[in-house]
Amino acid sequence: MKKHNVDPAEVAKFDALASSWWDPEGQSKPLHEINPLRLAFINERAQLKNAKAVDVGCGGGILTEALVKSGAETVGIDMGEMPLNVAKLHALEAGLKIKYELTTAEAMAEKHPDEFDVVTCMEMLEHVPDPQAIINACATMAKPGGDVFFSTLNRNPKAYLLAIVGAEYIAKMLPKGTHDYARFIRPAELARCCREAGLHVYDITGISYNPLTRRYKLNRDVDVNYLVHCRRI
């Protein structure tokens, strides 16, 4: 199994969150709150019913389960053993048939090229040493014409203030040290990486948070969090 593009410190961060992954009021609360938006973004751009999907960096399976409930036969992959154990247990309790694998995107791509109708990779690219390798692997796993989705954080002062200072230190929405600003990715950089991987970028949409209403919404503001829809050429 290839592990060259795995940061053990990043895996450890999410192992530490494993026990509270499915607590909607716990440290994974932001993931629970944005998951309906992520799913809506995917649903509007890809056919999930009867599709074959892979969720790369699935963690505890929040998006993975949503994809299954939307009708997709879904595999979840991650390099965090503890989140995967939580994901497996939660799927069992929910009566959902989901295959979870402890593997890298690159290793999965070697074994399953041109296989999936839908590939998702959410909130992961900013946690790996080589995002381009992940993007290449996601493109390889997709069938020609398949839909590939990414989400990550923009790199600018506003993103630093809101995603790190605000979310981690002031509002304490996330544990301190969750994100490394140097690994944030500008939309133009991600679009270039996608093109280099043989993907056509169709849409880039922002996810913004209103601290007054404490609600997230999709809009054209990509200054902090954003989603990308691509299709394999």
Automatic annotation (TrEMBL):
One of its GO terms (molecular function) is polyprenyldihydroxybenzoate methyltransferase activity. Its EC number is 2.1.1.222, 2.1.1.64. InterPro entries: SAM-dependent_MTases_sf, UbiG_MeTrfase. Signal peptide: none annotated. The keyword Transcription regulation does not apply. It catalyses: a 3-(all-trans-polyprenyl)benzene-1,2-diol + S-adenosyl-L-methionine = a 2-methoxy-6-(all-trans-polyprenyl)phenol + S-adenosyl-L-homocysteine + H(+); a 3-demethylubiquinol + S-adenosyl-L-methionine = a ubiquinol + S-adenosyl-L-homocysteine + H(+). Pathway: Cofactor biosynthesis; ubiquinone biosynthesis. S-adenosyl-L-methionine binds at residues 38, 57, 78, 122. It comes from the Bacteria. Pfam families: Methyltransf_23. GO terms for biological process: methylation. CDD domains: AdoMet_MTases. Keywords: Methyltransferase, S-adenosyl-L-methionine, Transferase, Ubiquinone biosynthesis. It is an enzyme of class 2 (transferase). Transmembrane segments: none annotated. O-methyltransferase that catalyzes the 2 O-methylation steps in the ubiquinone biosynthetic pathway. Belongs to the methyltransferase superfamily. UbiG/COQ3 family. NCBIfam families: UbiG. This is Ubiquinone biosynthesis O-methyltransferase.
